[in-house]
Inverse folding.
């Protein structure tokens, strides 16, 4: 069954957009970060702290494969880094997959993330200046992987409903 995959940098709105999209098109939504937290019984922060990022990427890849191989139709909101590790980007073009990159500018990401960074281990300890620089560099490194998505939707200065409608028209 079809999998609708939302991807993009931390804070681009994957979880928020997927929740509204799910209500409108009546397809269940699974957030990969939450799925990993349930599966391991650990928060993403504790997985990073206790086992390190490499272990997290392994678990993330396995969890992504499990969801892709399930028989149900679903919307999957990826983690911010999912497409950039373990060749996960190749899975974005698979059969029965519709992948959408939610593209946000550095400014949009900075504004959204500076308000809420404690649950995001990669940026939790950075001040504003460091965070701006980190986002700019990281987004540049990751863009190649994000651009492997079949569709791209700009989210800057759009409401949640506008972004959801853009995705609904892609799916029509
Ligand atoms: N179109 C939008 N307009 C305004 N605010 C938005 C929009 N989309 C998301 N937000 C806000 O931006 C913040 C980040 O959104 P969200 O947590 O959904 O991002 P994410 O991509 O799931 O991040 P992560 O990869 O860290 O899980 C939230 O506070 C959310 O309410
Ligand atoms: O951008 C990233 O690499 C991450 C984003 C989050 O969704 C989590 O998956 C984790 O904090 C790593
Ligand atoms: Mg999220």
């Amino acid at each position: 069954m079809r999998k609708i995959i939302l991807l993009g940098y931390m804070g681009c709105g994957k979880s928020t957009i997927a929740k509204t999209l799910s209500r409108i098109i009546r397809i269940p939504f699974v957030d990969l970060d939450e799925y990993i937290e349930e599966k391991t019984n650990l928060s993403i922060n504790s997985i990073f702290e206790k086992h390190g990022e490499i272990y997290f990427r392994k678990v993330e890849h396995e969890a992504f494969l499990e969801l892709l191989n399930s028989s149900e139709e679903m919307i999957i909101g990826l983690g911010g880094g999912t497409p950039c590790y373990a060749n996960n980007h190749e899975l974005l073009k698979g059969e029965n997959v519709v992948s959408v990159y939610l593209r946000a500018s550095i400014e949009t990401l900075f504004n959204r993330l500076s308000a809420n960074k404690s649950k995001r281990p990669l940026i939790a300890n950075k001040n504003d200046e460091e965070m701006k620089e980190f986002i700019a560099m990281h987004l540049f490194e990751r863009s190649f992987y994000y651009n492997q998505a079949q569709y791209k939707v700009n989210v800057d200065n759009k409401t949640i409903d506008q972004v959801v409608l853009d995705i609904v028209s892609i799916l029509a």
Summary: The pocket of SKM (ligand 2) is lined by residues 10, 33, 44, 79-81, 120-122 (CB under 6 Å).
